[in-house]
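Demo today. Your pick:
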Amino acid sequence: MALPIETGQPGVIVIGETEPKDELSMPWNVIVHNDPINLMSYVAMVFMRVFGYPRARAETLMLEVHQKGRSLVWSGGRERAELYVHQLHSYQLLATMEKSGA
């Protein structure tokens, strides 16, 4: 349900779903989860393409996904995290995002 939000300006009230600025600016983690379908070399290649990681870092993250079932592959602002998750999905990788510290 949308609640009125006081803007601090006289006579201006915003109605709608809004998120506090802290929520948007706090760090978000992009997590890639293991799946039985994608080859490890493919996952490393995706990390290099999406994040621009060098091969060594991409392979380290890929091995973490493979061995531990998941890996934190990037952390930062929410909008960029959403973009990365969307890009990873377009490569058929299982990716999620979560608040840092969650």
About this structure: Residues 55-68 form the longest helix (14 residues). The longest strand covers residues 70-76. Residues 44 and 58 are 5 Å apart (CA to CA). DSSP finds four helices and five strands in the chain.
